[in-house]
Specification:
This protein is mainly α and 173 residues long. It is 83% helix and 0% strand. It contains 10 helices and no strands. The radius of gyration is 18 Å and the shape is globular. The model has no long low-confidence stretch (mean pLDDT 87).
């Protein structure tokens, strides 16, 4: 008996949580195919993004990029800016792993803007930290400080460390 897309998705999530990325990859891939066969494009796109994250964990960045490509457009057409921003962030993460840092930063910035637009400061903070990490690795220390300050400012409820970091970064400017 063929498993349902929903059952495959749940199986993939459980495998991912256990660190069994290869099994998660297979489950998410099968779930995406099943949803596509059902013409459920939104859920198929969601599974492709889950697949992308699992592929990144398995150090298969090129496949991760291919899995996530185009899903942001599907979410945009559906008016789901949260999933659109996540999909763009997944593509950026894959590009970062592939060493295409300029494209990764551009997509991360697009993702961060969408998160800001919908009031998702914690997600925005995470994406801005990813940009800062690329800038730091690239030796762009001034940019890194500015991006880190922006990331801390994006946090809705900054913790003590974030408030301290914000204070230090402001002094450094």
């Amino acid at each position: 008996m063929k498993k349902t897309a929903l059952a495959l998705s749940e199986e993939g999530k459980k495998s991912f949580e256990k660190g069994d990325f290869e099994k998660a990859i297979q489950s998410f891939s099968d779930a995406a195919k099943n949803y596509a066969e059902e013409e459920n494009l939104l859920n198929a796109a969601e599974e492709r993004n889950n697949l992308s994250v699992a592929l990144l964990q398995a150090e298969r960045a090129e496949e991760a990029l291919k899995a996530a490509e185009g899903t942001d457009t599907i979410f945009a057409e559906a008016g789901d800016k949260l999933k659109q921003a996540m999909a763009i962030g997944n593509q950026a993460a894959a590009l970062d792993e592939l060493g295409d840092l300029d494209k990764a930063i551009a997509l991360y910035q697009q993702s961060a803007s969408l998160f800001a637009e919908i009031g998702e400061g914690n997600y925005q903070e995470t994406v801005l930290k990813s940009i800062a990490a690329i800038e730091f690795r690239s030796g762009k220390l001034q940019n890194t400080a500015q991006t880190m300050l922006a990331s801390v400012s994006a946090a809705k409820k900054p913790n003590l460390f974030q408030r301290f970091l914000k204070f230090i970064l402001r002094i450094g400017r």
